[in-house]
Amino acid sequence: MHIQLPAILKCTYCGAEGLRLAEGATVVTLKGIETVVTGAVKCPRCGSSYPVEDGIINFLPVRAGNIGPGQWTNHNRLVAWGYERFWRLGALSKLGGRDWPPAEELETIVRMLEGPSPESLTTHNEIVFYLDEGCSTAFYGRAMARAIAEGRLETGSHEGHVVALDNSWPMLQEARQFIEREGLSAGLSLVRADVEKMPFIDGAFAGTANGGSLNEFRHTAQALSETRRTLASQGRAAFMVQMHARKGPGSALQDLLHLASGLHFFRPDLLKDFYQKAQFKLEEQQGSGLITISRLLKA
């Protein structure tokens, strides 16, 4: 966890902004950046404490609440281990009905997050923060961190940093292992929290990416409202969403999955309506098969 991350955090109990690192934390320096490995972050108003373990700050109790049946499997260690190794890398090719390699998907997401001139981006303690929400193994977050390090996602003269959030501890542990293996620990912070009640101040992020998790959230409108709240003025969001099949066995199967697990599969008009009601401007949309990727501007 970046030592400056508490500046954009808020207490999920009393709402106080700007949490503080508690004494006794273990801090290491990675590529010139101070990173918290273990310890706690405390609220200066009510005294609530949020532990940091293995570099992951935890805002949820031992048993995460507000998850539907469609998210339960994400909390299984075996599912978390196999998610990227056996499913995620080929998911868009399967669902999109064409050859859609991960490199193309990730390039699209990074491009959609590009905003105004780098020097006009909102900063906190001279840092430009980006968010990967519902991150699973931080598939998007790692790509964003690499893009910042390589100068493809520009932050001007400011440091850039990615925050990856999920409610699944096993998924975040897998994300941490990928991050360490790829040498990205200095550029990524992991947060366990609920997307529908995120522990971030208003306008914390210059951009937000979401890789299919909108299909899983229990309350779509609330999740989008929180995305907008935590985006800076003129901030952009990139959403990859699985759409509803138009007809046939695929449509019937999706309807059964929705009834059994609560997963949402969106029709184009409904998805646009959700974006509009959340006060996003749809700037760009592309897709194939059952997959649509949208670039949204905070209106």
Describe the structure.
The structure is a single chain. The protein has 299 residues and is of the alpha/beta class. Helices cover 31% and strands 27% of the residues. It contains 9 helices and 12 strands. The protein has helices at residues 69-72, 77-87, 91-96, 102-113, 139-150, 169-181, 220-230, 249-261, 268-277; strands spanning 20-21, 26-30, 33-42, 49-53, 56-58, 127-133, 159-166, 188-192, 205-211, 231-242, 280-288, 291-298. Strands 1, 2, 3, 4, 5, 6, 7, 8, 9, 10, 11 and 12 form a 12-stranded mixed β-sheet that branches. A hairpin with a 6-residue loop joins strand 3 and strand 4. Helix 4 (102-113) packs across helix 5 (139-150). The model has no long low-confidence stretch (mean pLDDT 92).
Q: What are the key terms here?
A:
single chain, 299 residues, alpha/beta, 12-stranded mixed sheet
Summary?
The chain is α/β, with parallel strands linked by helices and 299 residues long.
Distance between the termini: 31 Å
Based on DSSP secondary structure assignment, what is the total number of beta strands? 12
Q: Rounded to an integer, what's the Rg over CA atoms? A: 18 Å
Largest sheet: 12 strands, mixed
Q: Order of SSEs, N→C? A: EEEEEHHHHEHEHEEHEHHEE
Rough outline = globular
Number of helices: 9
The low-confidence runs, each spanning 5 or more residues with pLDDT under 50, are none
Helix fraction, binned, reads 25-40%
Q: Approximately what portion of the residues adopt beta-strand conformation?
A: 25-35%
Global structural class? alpha/beta
Give the averaged pLDDT, no decimals: 92
